Automatic annotation (TrEMBL):
Molecular functions per Gene Ontology: G protein-coupled receptor activity
CDD domains in the record: 7tm_classA_rhodopsin-like (cd00637)
PROSITE patterns: G_PROTEIN_RECEP_F1_1, G_PROTEIN_RECEP_F1_2
Topology of the protein relative to the lipid bilayer: Multi-pass membrane protein
One Pfam family hit: 7tm_1
Protein name (Swiss-Prot/TrEMBL): G-protein coupled receptors family 1 profile domain-containing protein
Annotated source species: Lottia gigantea
Domain annotation G-protein coupled receptors family 1 profile: ranges: 58-312
Entry's family note: Belongs to the G-protein coupled receptor 1 family.
Length: 368
């Protein structure tokens, strides 16, 4: 007679005999990372805690500002809101659960299989949804810049909303194979968190790395190159009237870089965050790489959900102003008026120079 003990979520086990000679399956769990590697754990928890705070606050602000403001994120507004919502699921829910995994360990989740599966499936769905939205954002910007006549035909508000809903449905379907045996959800020993099982099926791992991460990356690369080239050509045409100016091409290049700055930074951040993770899961077929490698590349991938807010704050002046106004002036009347660009009677009487001066103070100072 064989007695099974704590077999759920098992990664290793030994068969032994009790005092009566009965065989039993003794399950062993991976100790919490906080106990085995406290320094690494403290670094990991600190970084992820900051990412949780920035991502939760930042993505919430992005949703509010993009929904209310008429002057921020005019192009592809619906996709950017949907992207912020997907990122909020990762930064606001999955990131804290990663910290729980490091502190509590595998044994804690072994009696909460449903919760571990919920974390894994929601995180993966949100990540796939973010990839799809980034692809739509790049396509949206390409049409707006390069095929402007088609923009208002293809991207009507109702169409954009439907596309946003489709991204969530498609993202869930892409991760659904984990429920039917092609992949799986598990507590990963090397990541110390509930996540999809990258070792269950190598074909599904390749599907994730190539089709769901690599394809959006390739599409965005092509789209942004075309956008950059289009802007550059436009600037060259503008400066072509200054034939006697030897620096006209240099000026055109600088203007192009300035116009494309936010797009370029978003693209670079995506590459930096997800390329290491994609490379590691694709090449580590035998799961031989050290735990430190897996946990760090996964950490960097998770940081992507908190990065968009930082990029907007650095490179998008209208967004930065709206964010400071929203944080510094919580009263409803001020917030609504400033975000939407509407002005009160008192504001109307203020000179343009005074308004610009106040804007600069808002941008360059943090709420006194």
């Amino acid at each position: 007679m064989i007695e099974l003990k704590n077999c759920t979520m098992t990664n290793s086990s030994n068969i032994g005999k009790d005092n009566n000679g009965t065989e039993e399956l003794i399950t062993t769990f991976v100790a919490p990372l906080l106990e085995t590697k406290p320094i690494l754990s403290i670094i990991y928890i600190s970084i992820l805690s900051v990412a949780f705070l920035i991502g939760t606050v930042g993505n919430t602000l992005t949703i509010i500002i993009s929904s209310i403001s008429k002057n921020v994120n005019k192009v592809g507004r619906e996709f950017l809101i949907n992207l912020a919502l997907a990122d909020l699921c990762v930064s606001g829910f999955a990131d804290p659960m990663c910290i729980v995994g490091v502190v509590k360990g595998q044994r804690w989740f072994s009696s909460r299989v449903w919760f571990c599966e919920l974390i894994s499936s929601l995180c993966l769905t949100a990540c796939f949804c973010a990839f799809l939205n980034l692809t739509l954002v790049s396509f949206n910007r390409y049409i707006y810049v390069c095929k402007n006549r088609l923009y208002y035909v293809l991207f009507k508000t109702k169409v954009c909303i439907v596309l946003c809903l489709v991204t969530w449905v498609a993202a869930f379907l892409f991760q659904f194979p984990n429920f039917i045996g092609w992949g799986d959800h598990t507590f990963d020993e090397k990541n110390h968190q509930c996540i999809w099982d990258r070792t269950k099926s190598y074909s599904y791992t390749l599907f994730v790395s190539i089709a769901l991460i690599g394809s959006p990356l390739l599409f965005m690369t092509v789209a942004y190159i075309l956008i950059f080239w289009r802007i550059f050509q436009t600037k060259v045409n503008v400066y072509s009237y200054s034939i006697d100016d030897p620096d006209r091409l240099k000026k055109a290049w600088k203007e192009t870089a300035k116009s494309s700055r936010t797009l370029f930074i978003l693209f670079v951040v995506f590459v930096v965050c997800w390329t290491p993770y994609t490379t590691v899961i694709s090449l580590d077929v035998a799961d031989d790489l050290p735990m430190e490698v897996h946990i760090m590349v996964t950490l960097v991938a998770h940081l992507h959900s908190s990065s968009t807010f930082v990029v907007y704050m650095i490179s998008n002046r209208p967004y930065r102003r709206a964010a400071f106004r929203l944080l510094c002036r919580p009263t409803k009347g001020y917030r609504t008026g400033m975000l939407t660009g509407s002005t009160s009677t008192a504001t109307t009487t203020t000179s343009d120079a005074s308004t610009k001066s106040q804007d600069k103070k808002v941008v360059h100072t943090i709420c006194k």
